Amino acid sequence: MQYLRHSLFAFLGIINVVFSQSANLTSDGCVDAAGFQTCQNGVTAATAACLTKADADGSSLETEACGCTDYTDNINCYAAHCWNRVNECEYQTYAVEYLVGCPIAVLPIPYFPTPANAPDSCSCNLGDVYLAITGNIQQGSTCSTNASSTAIDNASESVQQIQGCECCEISGSLSSIYSICPNTDPSLIGLSSVNQLETTLDTPFSSCGSYLAEFPCDTDLHFSAAAGGTFYGPDNLPASGTQTLSNLAGTVTAPASGAVFTYTNGADKQVYTISAASAEGAGSKATTTGKNGATTTSKSESTTATSIASTTGAQPTTTKSLSSKTESNIILLGTLIVLSFIL
Fold first, then answer.
1. Rg (CA), the chain
2. Alpha-carbon distance 244 to 331, whole Å?
3. Facing residues of 275 across strands?
4. pLDDT by residue (tens digit) across 233-281?
5. Which range (33-37, 99-103, 316-320) has the least confidence?
6. What range does the domain containing 82 cover?
7. Residue 11 to residue 178: CA distance in whole angstroms
8. Domain boundary at 229, 258, 291, which?
9. Of 24, 84, 189, 238, which has the fewest beta carbons less than 10 angstroms from its beta carbon?
10. Could you tell me whether strands 287-289 and 271-275 are parallel, antiparallel, or unpaired per DSSP bridges?
11. Any idea what DSSP says for residue 123?
């Protein structure tokens, strides 16, 4: 058993989904494709300049700040210009990648996760799967900590209970995959991440049958109810689905959050006001209301990156011309951020 918690591993499978599905947000089918492309081009240029400064400073924290800001600004562009596509797999996988790739990213994220029975939604609700796995990992950590506190009174029982906690953590994560999206190929929505979790915890799921029987996850170890109502064991896992990810039928005809809405980003603590483009593609732009109350349009990335860098301890960023090394950094940005977790 491993008492050091590495929650990153629980998300590697979903990251693979994002990579295999090309998590880059595209303008195809957007209600305001031209407006989104213009907005995204501005974000790309700002990210390049931000990474140039981070490269010059040799600062991994600045690189993380640039990455977090890039995610946020792209999400805001999409929410404004592609609100008719936010339920689709492309945007939902991008939102998951942001939560994994930005070390300080937290909810809320516009239009994530997708509500039940939403039109034109991804065939598997990736947001629900992600949040369910996250919840089980957090509960597993709490459960193991509580069990460790009883070791003074009964060390042997404590060790057994910790093993039960870890088995429930794995079981709950698997149950999330198999119950939320029973028809989807589990290898596309996080199965490999759970396999890695088993390795990290040094707890093969095949050994969990007796522990799950001795320590019922919900009644004894106080886990929340499993997705679908069942904490599966190694002997009763359902048959795996075989379907790939796809978008279901339906059309979004109006922005679900209204023509104008605001949200506070947990990473940079900025309040963003999103103005939805019209269905005629009027080119409405996302606006940003900062902590000082000033509202700007097509804001500079350095402003938000500075806020995030302040949170993470990096130095403020400024803009410079794009270098060839920075071009490589842009391509590898997601990898760099993931590596920053491991290191």
1. 21
2. 26
3. 260
4. 999 999 999 999 999 999 999 999 999 999 999 899 999 999 999 865 5
5. 316-320
6. 31-115+250-342
7. 16
8. 229
9. 24
10. antiparallel
11. S
Alpha helices in 114-219 (DSSP H): 126-148, 155-180, 191-201, 209-214
Residue 134 dihedral angles phi and psi, to the nearest 5°: -55, -45
Closest by CA position to 29, among listed 72, 77, 86:
86
Closest residue by Cα to residue 23 from 82, 92, 70? 92
Are 107 and 152 contained in the same domain? no
Backbone angles phi, psi at 295, to 5 degrees: -105, 130
Say which DSSP state 4 is in: S
Give CA–CA dist 244/182, Å, rounded. 12
What is the pLDDT at residue 100? Answer: 87
Flag whether pLDDT at 208 surpasses 90.
Answer: yes
What residue ranges in the chain does DSSP mark as E strands? 260-264, 271-275, 287-289, 295-297
Mean pLDDT of 58-86: 96
Residue with the larger pLDDT of the pair 122 and 148: 122
- 54 in a structural domain: yes
Place of tokens 């919900």: 218
Same domain, 153 and 89: no
* pLDDT tier for residue 309 given thresholds of 50, 70 and 90: low
Q: Does 111 share its domain with 143?
A: no
pLDDT digits (tens, 9 = 90+) for 73-122: 999 999 999 999 999 999 999 999 999 889 999 999 999 999 999 999 99
Query: Which residue carries 């119950």 as its tokens?
Result: 179
3-class secondary structure, 313: coil
Domain count, the chain: 2
Closest CA to 10 of 75, 99, 94, 95: 99
Integer Cα distance of 123 and 243 in angstroms: 9
Tokens coding 106: 């937290």
SS3 content of the chain, % helix, strand, coil (to 5): 55, 5, 40
pTM for the predicted model, two decimal places: 0.79
Q: Is residue 327 part of a domain?
A: yes
What's the CA gap between 139 and 125, in Å, rounded? 21
Q: How far apart are CA 248 and CA 310, in angstroms?
A: 41
